[in-house]
Amino acid sequence: MSRSKTGKGSSDPSLLTKLAAELLGTALLTFTIAAAAGQGAELAPVAIGSTLMAAIYAGGHISGAHFNPAVTLAIFIRGKISLIEGILYAAFQLCGGFLGGCVALTIEPAWGGGSGWWPRTPADIVIGYAHKGDGVTDTAALIAEIVLTFALCHTVLHVATNDDQTGNSYFGLAIGFTVVSGAVSVGGVSGGAFNPAVGMLSFVRLMYTAALSLGYKAEILTLIAEFTSESWISFIGPLIGGLIAGLLFRLTHPSQCGGGSAIFKAPRESLAPFIIEFVGTMLLGFTVATAAAPSNGSVLAPISIGSILMAQVYAGGSTSGAHYNPAVTVAVSLRRWMGGQQSLIVPPLVVLTYILVQSAGALTGGALALQVVGSIGYPAAGANTVGAVACVAEAVATFFLCLVVLQTATLKTSNTYFGLAIGFTVTAMAVTVGGISGGAFNPAVGLLGRLAVANPLAFDGTLWYYIVGPIVGGAAAAGAFRLLATGEFADANGFSMH
């Protein structure tokens, strides 16, 4: 991942040091999962993502802080690690995953109902591990693991290996809170591993239970059958997600991936912004559809949605501007025009194309979510809310969102908080007016409701306020920005979009 430059007289860490860092960081991650999820803590997703974030900041300068064979695979495909080193990393990560679970077992009697220092019977073992929810099919769980591990590895590759983002200080935040988002949105579906090393927690349970039951052959065989019938998803799904993320990075960033990626380099780089807009909006749509699904019920849904947006803003900002929202695209395109300058920041044809790929991305994310949760979540106004009120609520919330975008991500001076500010504006507004308007703040996300009706093309009188409200809010934000940020318009060439 992100590696600091060494100073005079210093040397790069040895391979053994790197492997030790990978083992320790992965063990801390799986220990957190085993203990926090084992106790059924409501904030377990935040604890898990925060542990990953902190461990990445602590170990990034040593080993790159992968802590995940799927991440290592993505980075190998991208060309930043050798095959031998990647295999060794994965081996030590898997060992670390097992070690973290074993350490959790030593304190498990404190919450698992056992007695003494160590679980005494198979029934005593209550540690957190990745497993499917009740009634969830293998296909649904596998898709969930692939999509979220792809999101995780996609974020890693862009914030921690992208030459255009070298030296940023937000890489750990973006990566850790991608896991927070996924643990909330699909944790109840697939168990939320996103990491084969996390799958090792199933081995911890299996092997210790089998050891306690030694001599009961039938019981051991039953446990093995249970493992092979379900836990494979925690290994195969993440590896597929990592592979896709690595290949996509090679597709969109050929200049950074060596000579073998130079074929059709110019057209690929020209298409990269549109691909990133599609991917980012797809992941946002998928998260809204799963985190807010009727079967989910987590009070952390607004945090999940804001976190995935934050991570994808950081991931895609240097490539596409990371709009992921037609209202943001309108606000950004109006930014310079409203200052009396003749050229739009985003040319009209690009504006139209962005809006189309954002809409297609959100619908694709919703369609994937349908395969995962069956009945998806989507913006819907409260039962007592009339359309005009919902429209006003959407306009006000989107105004705030777009103003934050313009004030943090389009200034002449750079900062590192733009993604955090943008993502958690959505979290704040989802809590504030989500129960009134449905909380889209984004015409592309507003389209998710079309996937939940019998005739998606039928106009039922509700979609308009998810189009009109956000677009009006975005345009108003551009006007407010012109009034507030007068210094930004002094030099027409001073504009930048992270």
Task: Report the end-to-end length measured between terminal Cα atoms.
Answer: 20 Å
Q: What is the H-and-E element order?
A: HHHHHHHHHHHHHHHHHH
pLDDT averaged residue by residue? 89
Number of strands: 0
CATH topology of the largest domain: Glycerol uptake facilitator protein
Say which CATH homologous superfamily of the largest domain is assigned. Answer: Glycerol uptake facilitator protein
Structural class: mainly alpha
CATH architecture classification name of the largest domain: Up-down Bundle
State the name of the first-level CATH class of the largest domain. Mainly Alpha
Largest sheet: none
Label the overall shape.
globular
Q: How many H/I helices?
A: 18
Low-confidence stretches: 2-9, 492-498
Note the beta-strand portion.
under 5%
Domain tally = 2
Structural features, described:
- It is a single chain.
- Helix content is 66%, strand content 0%.
- With 498 residues, the protein is mainly α.
Write a short abstract of this structure.
By secondary structure, this protein is mostly helical. The protein is 66% helix and 0% strand.
